[in-house]
Every structure is written in structure tokens, then in C-alpha cells.
Design a protein that fits this description.
Rossmann fold; two-stranded parallel ribbon; 2 domains; alpha/beta; 13 helices
Length: about 325
């Protein structure tokens, strides 16, 4: 049997800084804990077993919500991916759970045969198959770790609020920094395009550079920050269309602010819409309100219009600068 590691419910400064770092995509792919069995408090053979992923941010969220609870934590090898995404990819799945039960010899640690899994992991784990193969019963717990003490205190019963998946403004803006950091090619491209469009050097170069950099970099920020913030209030179901609306609106604002010509205004709208649409579409991976099939369909339908819109916008921007139209 693997040794049991005792962990605290209190996060250290290193844990807090590490969590902040992965929010900004720092060491995100390597931010993980070792799979295996952990103990919180002073669990006994009758204490509950909570199953989670080995993404450290997920693990820390779970243990920090267990103050005053004596429990076992069974960590699956999800290759450093959170529960929701790992369930979709199959790493938080039936076979991995069965392997981890054998590796930790959990049946020799506890006297019961109940496993509490996060509700967002249900897509990857077959409870009937687990019972058939191992004799362990799967209970799907609350969506959020902070509700686990109340869930356990109620005899492992959930009320409506524990079942509800929320994605409010704070939730959305918590994950938005990763999208911003991952958009660095767009930021670099917007900066390079601004430098070129502002040519030639000399009188007025600084003014032109400001105009194009604010307009183009603003389109990237519209897709990475404004789109997540305004997600519920912007019309359309597809994230790409939501992003397109926000990007186009930013194009209109930039056109008015910088008194662009008709061609320039249309260029700002087309470029803003295409860039923000792509980045908004990328945000589908950050929420549980989308599914893999739907996201793939959106990519297939939306990619070509985005490319055409961006190409036309670039042509019009170039014509505006070169021909003055």
C-alpha cells in the first residue's frame, strides 16, 4: 500500500502564489500533485473518501474547503488537468479510478465502500461499472468544494444549490487572465501591424501609432477580457458570435474616437469582430456551459467567416493608409 500523506486545509503562501501564477499561465502544465491517497484532519476507517484530480489548483481548492472535516482524499492521475476537462478527455475516468483503488489498497484503509466524486466528473466515470468491477459505490457530491462539509453533514445529500453550476462574473474573470496570456500571438501581431501601419517615421508617426495600437490591441482585449465579462448580456448562443458583437462594437468606438474614414471604420469593425470572435470562441474551454461537440461545430462553422473578415479588414486598413480612402 502506498504511504498516506497528511495535508493541511490551510494554504501556505507558496500555495497561494502558485495558484495566482497558474491563473496567469505560469507553470500551468506542470502544476500538479502526486496521485495517491491523502489524509485531511484525523480520518478513521469510517471517514469519507473524496476523489479528485491531481491538478494542484483543484486539489488545493478541495482541501482548503475541508476545515473541520476528517476525510481521505483519493487523487487520480489526470496529467495535471482539472476534473471537468479531465472527465471530458477520459483521464478522470472509470479505468483510472479503478487503477487507483488497487494501487492504494483503499479497501484496507476504510471499512465502507463509498466514494464521493465531484459532480463535474460524472461525464467521465460510470458509477454502475465501478460497482460491477470493484464493489465500490460512487456518490456524486456538490459542484463546489466549499459545500462538501454541509453535504457530508446532511448524510451525503445535496440540495438544489449544491447541484447548480454557476459561472458568474467573478468566476469568468478568474479564468480570463489565462486567455489573455495565451493570446500573446495576437497581441504581438497587433503591435507589429500598428508599427507598420503608422509608417512613415516623422511627423505624425506617434499619433498614427497610438491610433492603430489602441484600436488593434483593443480588439484583442475585447475578445479576452470584455467577452468573458459581458458573456450573459450579449446576444447569441455561440461564443464566437458574442465575441464578434463585442469586437465590432469596439471597432465602432475606435472609428469614432479616431475619426476614421468610411474604409477605415469598416476595417476596424471587421478586424475587431474577427479577432474578438476567435478569442471569444477559445473561451468555450473555460466553462462547463459548453460541450466538446458543440465547440467543435462552432469551430467548423466560424473559422472561415473569421478569416474572410480579417482579410477584408487588413486590405481596407492598408488601402486607408496607402491610398487615403
Amino acid at each position: 500500500m502506498q504511504p498516506v500523506k497528511v495535508v493541511s486545509t490551510r494554504l501556505s503562501l507558496g500555495d497561494i502564489l502558485g495558484g495566482w501564477g497558474v491563473r496567469w499561465n505560469i507553470r500551468r502544465g506542470r502544476y500538479r500533485v502526486e496521485p495517491g491517497l491523502y489524509a485531511v484532519g484525523a480520518p478513521t476507517a469510517d471517514s469519507p473518501v473524496l476523489v479528485t484530480a491531481n491538478y494542484k489548483l483543484t486539489f488545493d481548492k478541495l482541501r482548503s474547503g475541508l476545515t473541520g472535516v476528517d476525510a481521505w482524499i483519493l487523487v487520480l492521475d489526470t496529467r495535471g488537468v482539472n476534473v471537468w476537462c479531465a472527465a471530458g478527455k477520459g483521464t478522470f475516468g472509470t479505468r483510472e479510478l479503478e487503477r487507483r483503488l488497487l494501487a492504494t489498497r483503499l479497501d484496507q484503509v476504510v471499512s465502507h465502500r463509498r466514494l464521493v466524486l465531484p459532480q463535474l466528473g460524472a461525464t467521465g466515470v460510470s458509477a454502475p461499472q465501478i460497482f460491477k468491477d470493484t464493489g465500490w459505490r460512487v456518490v456524486f457530491g456538490p459542484v463546489r468544494a466549499r459545500d462538501i462539509p454541509a453535504f457530508l453533514g446532511a448524510g451525503m445529500r445535496k440540495d438544489a444549490s449544491m447541484r447548480r453550476v454557476r459561472f458568474n462574473l467573478l468566476d469568468r474573470m478568474t479564468v480570463a487572465p489565462v486567455e489573455l496570456v495565451q493570446a500573446w500571438p495576437f497581441l504581438l501581431g497587433a503591435a507589429a501591424a500598428s508599427l507598420l501601419l503608422a509608417l512613415p517615421f516623422g511627423t505624425g508617426y506617434g499619433t498614427r501609432l497610438l491610433r492603430f495600437s489602441v484600436s488593434l490591441i483593443g480588439a484583442v482585449l475585447a475578445g479576452t477580457l470584455a467577452a468573458p465579462a459581458l458573456l450573459p448580456v450579449v446576444p447569441f448562443r455561440a461564443f464566437s458570435l458574442k465575441g464578434a458583437v463585442i469586437g465590432a462594437a469596439w471597432g465602432v468606438v475606435a472609428s469614432v474616437a479616431f475619426r476614421a474614414s468610411v474604409a477605415g471604420s469598416l476595417a476596424f469593425v471587421l478586424v475587431g469582430a474577427s479577432v474578438a470572435a476567435f478569442l471569444g470562441m477559445s473561451f468555450t474551454g473555460a466553462t462547463t456551459f459548453t460541450c466538446q461537440a458543440g465547440a467543435e461545430l462552432e469551430v467548423r462553422r466560424g473559422t472561415l467567416p473569421m478569416i474572410v473578415s480579417l482579410a477584408l479588414g487588413v486590405v481596407l486598413l492598408s488601402a486607408w493608409r496607402v491610398l487615403g480612402i
